[in-house]
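Posting this for the archive.
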Amino acid sequence: MNQASVGSLELVARFHEVRQASLNHCRPLSIEDHSLQAEAFTSPPKWHLAHTTWFFETFILVPFLNGYEPENPRYEMLFNSYYNGIGEQFPRPKRALLSRPSLEEIHHYRSTVEAAILQLLADDTHPARENIHARVRLGIEHECQHQELFFTDIKYSLSINPLSPAFLAAGAPKSSDGATAPLAWSVVDGGLVSIGHDGAGFCFDNEQPRHPVYIAPFELAQRLVTNGEYEQFIADGGYQRPELWLADGWNTLQRENWTAPLYWRGSEEYTLEGLVSRRPQSPVTHISGYEAEAYARWAGARLPTEQEWEVAASIAEPAGTHVVRVHPEPADSAEQGLQQLDDACWQWTRSAYVPYPGFSPAEGAIGEYNGKFMSNQWVLRGGSCVSSPGHLRPSYRNFFYPEDRWQFTGLRLARDSAQDPS
């Protein structure tokens, strides 16, 4: 068997694995849960199942499979997220109104498109074979991103219910809480370094091209800020002190009446396992970039730049196998070095989401994937407890608006190093 055939088999296996994972994630849901959409920034689970299928159909089957007829021509508009080059989109805030097609019809749509994709992948003589494989891989990674969004979207939608319903039954009892270890710092030398994806394997276009940057010496906290530490910030009037906040952050705080992280309920915290007692040792999560920035100022530190974060993460020891969990776990008080890089919370940086030098989006509508969002957003690095294991690499650039809180977002402190000659 030649190398190309082996590559095709691996792609098919990965395609099956990811497509099945989306269905597995939905198993705890009721029929009614599949249509939940509490706010415009969330999407119903049923829509995620359909949209990821639409991606394969629109960007692979329609242009490359001769004679392919779409399952339903109106799906092109119904499940288009933001691709203006494709055409009209159904209004995002109204996705919960799409009771039709039914969940059963969506499952049939998925099966139909999957069969057609497998037919296309089996054609080793197709003249666009290389492009097809690249787009199927992008579609797979796109679906992994939506699997993470599935968890955060359903968490937000379920949290609105006064019953505080659990998505999953509580797991095994957590180990007894010990004292949080004092915050330690890792010193990172400055100099001219390169960042951006390097080497084999998939990456998104916004991770390239690899390029040199100059970094002054700095120190990075070895773990994330905890709930207990964040409680001290609140107790010290953190949400009432405008001098700690960026102007836009203070205006957002006033408008939204923020007084604590998103899911805090007194001494409890809403999780995908329902309402639980908040653990002081766990990393604080579901905070905005503005809250992260204010805390860092209060703590006499700052947020890292995305370049600093990537350089530090690139020289850290690999964390091992990532296991998807419904809530981040505390750091190991006995462990040394950088912890919680990619298995707890996405970490806000102080960097604006802008293109790397030399970045050029792909031609056509598929070029809208990342490039057109490079404005007014902040970069987050690392990964979260619900991230796809395949996305946990130092070069991965996540991005959200600084007021967003429904993702598993936390913070890691940084500070200028005493070695800095300036």
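The longest strand covers residues 346-352. The chain is about 30% helix and 10% strand.
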